[in-house]
UniProtKB/TrEMBL annotation:
Signal sequence segment: 1-19
Lineage: Eukaryota, Metazoa, Chordata, Craniata, Vertebrata
Protein's name in the database: Ig-like domain-containing protein
UniProt xrefs under Gene3D superfamilies: Immunoglobulins
Species: Cyprinus carpio
Residue ranges annotated for the Ig-like domain, each copy included: 130-228
InterPro entries: Ig-like_dom, Ig-like_dom_sf, Ig-like_fold, Ig_sub, Ig_V-set
Source taxon at top rank: Eukaryota
Pfam families: V-set
Keywords, ordered alphabetically: Signal
Signal listed as a keyword: yes
C-alpha cells in the first residue's frame, strides 16, 4: 500500500492556470558538474507551493509546500542528486548525467497567482583532449620550382587529429587563427578523426580543437624545420615537432604536457 502511494505521488501533476506567465529558458552544463535551476523567487512565503516536474509527462520530482521539502525519484533517475533551496525554491541537481537532459517545469503557487516556468536542460559529456599523431612513413620531400637562388626543398607530413567516445562535437584544424578544416557529428560515443597535410617550410603553429556549445579542448602543434648537420647521414632532413597539449574550458585550468618526436624524411 505504501509503495502504491509513493508511485501515485510520482505521477501526480499539479494542474493550474499558468497563462502568459509560462516562459521557456535554456541552460547547458557539463556532465559531472552541478546545476541550479532558478525560480527567480526572492523569498518563499509560508503558504506558497513550488513544484518541480520532469520530462514530457511532467512527473513530479520535488516540491516545497508550507516550508516542507519533499523529493521523489520513482525511476531512480536522480538518486540523491536533488536539493531544493528552502528560501527560493530553486532546484539543484548534483553530479548531472547526460540522461538528465530534458525539460523541467516549475509551478509556483501563491495566494495571488499561479505562474509556470519551463527550463530546457542540456547536459554535454566531458570533452577529451584531442590527440595529434604523425607517421614518419607518411612524410615526403619534393623540390619547388627553381628561383634565382636555385630550387628549394618542400617537405610534407600527414598529421591526424583524433578523439574517442565523443558526440555532438566539432573537430577542427587551425593554422594560427585561420580555420583549415572541420568536421561535426551529432551521434553519441563515436571515434572522430581529421587528417591534415603539413608543409615544413617555416615555423608554424597548428591547433586541433574539439568543442561543443559550452566547452573546448585544444592540442597545439609547433613545427620547426631544421637541418641537423651532426647526423651521420647528411642527406637526411630532420624535423622536430613539439607538441603542447593544453586542455582549455570554461572555468577549467590549463593542463600542459609537452613532448617531442622527430620525423625523418629520407
Amino acid at each position: 500500500m505504501k509503495i502504491l502511494l509513493v508511485f501515485s505521488l510520482c505521477l501526480l501533476v499539479v494542474h493550474g492556470v499558468c497563462g502568459d506567465t509560462d516562459v521557456m529558458k535554456s541552460v547547458s552544463v557539463t556532465e559531472g558538474d552541478s546545476i541550479t535551476l532558478h525560480t527567480n523567487v526572492t523569498e518563499i512565503q509560508s503558504d506558497d507551493q513550488i513544484v518541480w516536474m520532469f520530462g514530457p509527462k511532467e512527473t513530479r520530482i520535488a516540491e516545497i509546500h508550507k516550508q516542507k521539502i519533499s523529493t521523489y525519484d520513482c525511476k531512480g533517475t536522480f538518486g540523491d542528486r536533488l536539493q531544493i533551496d528552502s528560501q527560493t525554491g530553486s532546484l539543484t541537481i548534483g553530479n548531472v548525467r547526460t540522461e538528465h537532459t530534458e525539460l523541467y517545469k516549475v509551478q509556483i503557487v501563491t495566494n495571488e497567482a499561479t505562474s509556470c516556468k519551463t527550463i530546457k536542460l542540456t547536459v554535454y559529456a566531458r570533452l577529451p583532449v584531442p590527440v595529434i599523431t604523425s607517421n614518419p612513413s607518411n612524410c615526403s620531400s619534393s623540390s619547388s620550382s627553381p628561383s634565382s637562388s636555385g630550387s628549394s626543398s618542400v617537405s610534407n607530413c600527414s598529421l591526424l587529429c583524433s578523439a574517442v567516445n565523443v558526440g555532438h562535437v566539432t573537430l577542427s584544424w587551425y593554422k594560427g587563427n585561420s580555420l583549415l578544416s572541420s568536421i561535426s557529428v551529432s551521434d553519441l560515443s563515436i571515434s572522430l578523426s581529421l587528417p591534415l597535410e603539413v608543409e615544413y617550410q617555416e615555423k608554424n603553429t597548428y591547433s586541433c580543437v574539439i568543442n561543443n556549445p559550452i566547452r573546448n579542448q585544444t592540442t597545439h602543434l609547433d613545427t620547426d624545420e631544421r637541418l641537423d648537420d651532426d647526423d651521420d647521414d647528411d642527406d637526411d632532413e630532420q624535423f622536430e615537432v613539439s607538441l603542447l597539449m593544453a586542455g582549455m574550458g570554461r572555468g577549467a585550468g590549463n593542463i600542459e604536457n609537452k613532448w617531442k618526436y622527430k620525423c625523418y624524411l629520407i
